[in-house]
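Here is the promised in-class demo. Please do not try to memorize the tokens; focus on the logic of going from shape to residues.
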């Protein structure tokens, strides 16, 4: 069982050249590698949105990765809105959601 006091949930908005470059799948793969749960999806405005949840250190490592993204991506802005300490909706895995 995960220690919820060490868990963190962040909502990410990522802008730049992040669609059509494998960003979502690469984020999902990195999240799974780090043991982070949540979801990722494209936005109609050209950005990518994600909710990431897991041990604080793993979530922080994923945010560092997300600021770079995969090789073909060019991240110009990443906004992370913390929801640390709250575990309103625990995620079981990491999903790719339809665009919104």
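The designed amino acids, position by position:
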């Amino acid at each position: 069982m995960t220690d919820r006091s060490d868990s963190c949930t962040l909502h990410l908005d990522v802008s730049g050249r992040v669609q059509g470059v494998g960003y979502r799948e690469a984020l999902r793969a990195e999240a799974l590698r780090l043991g982070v749960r949540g979801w990722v999806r494209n936005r109609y405005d050209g950005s990518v949105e994600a909710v990431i949840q897991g041990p604080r250190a793993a979530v922080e490592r994923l945010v560092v990765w997300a600021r770079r993204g995969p090789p073909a991506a060019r991240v110009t802005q990443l906004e992370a809105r913390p929801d640390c300490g709250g575990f309103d909706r625990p995620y079981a895995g990491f999903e790719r959601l339809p665009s919104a």
